[in-house]
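PROTEIN ENTRY
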Amino acid sequence: MKLTAQVRDILFLISKVQNVVPAKPVIPILTNILLEAKGKEITLSATDLTVSVQVSTPAIIKEEGTITLPAKRFFSLVREITAPEISIESFDSDVIISAPGGSHFRLHSIDKNEFPTFPELSGGELLNIEPKELKRLFTKTSFATAKDDSRQVLNGVYIRIENNRIISVGTDGKKLAKMEALLLKPSSSIHEMIIPLKAVDEFIRILENDETVSMTLMDDKVAIETGHVLLITKLLQGKYPDYERVIPSYDTIKVVSLHKDELVSLLKQVSLFTSTENHSVKFTFQKGLVELEANNAKVGEGKVNMPVDYAGDEIKIAFNPLYFIDILRHCEEETVGLGITDSHNPGSIKSEDTKNHFVLMPMRLSGE
């Protein structure tokens, strides 16, 4: 193999595959990337056996071929090269990387046949969706997903596709986010899947402003292709919780309209007076007013309030302020509706002009 490529193009490839390379691989070859030179392009591939990615860019191919490279070392080297282009050439088990001006580097390679075969996608259903919408779905639900829960299904984003509608849900049992979007073309069947959080993060990273993005759906995996990037992930196995059961019905709750930015500011202030053992803020809704209060025996007391359009009986409920702020950051409108019933049932946070829907579990009030 022998080729010449622009450093900026190689850096583009690296940006798309570097996060897939595992820090603690189950087999040594996974610390490497596969580089293939064919036609007028080079393609980098990386995998951790769950998430796999391929990305291509133009290059001058003088001799076609395929090699593996130690990912971390190669990435670090390319980032430090100041020349506009580099040459890559393979010799037996070594790879020579050179740049104008006399720079010359030799990296040891591993047999390309040890690198895992890229997943096969034939037979899957192909769907199209606007990348902006898909990125919104993933971004606004992945933050609510568990990071390392013993219940494996909670470590991923649940996706349901039916007709021309796609629903995305993330939850860690303490907060929940649900989003909806429309497909450009209806699906031929109903699909349900749980996508691992690492894959969701990578999907968000590759989704840019192309006119459409294609999704390939299979029983055990899903792929997204956009531009020059193809990312495939295996799905988490198991049954996702019945999230609809914890979403309060707007027919049975009192909805209070709140100014998002003002509420975030007040939550940040009063959260300074919470404790690590009881990280909660008490909300007291009274006629025309909501009061936020936190107490910490070691620090003191914080109490703030803001006017609201509430006219019912007094309701007290406690929430984790960090979770609440996290949800508000993912609300798109200036005003949100907070739905409450009592101190024991979840709060429902819904943007008024979209189908964004969040649920926040209450915390125990002091004295209960």
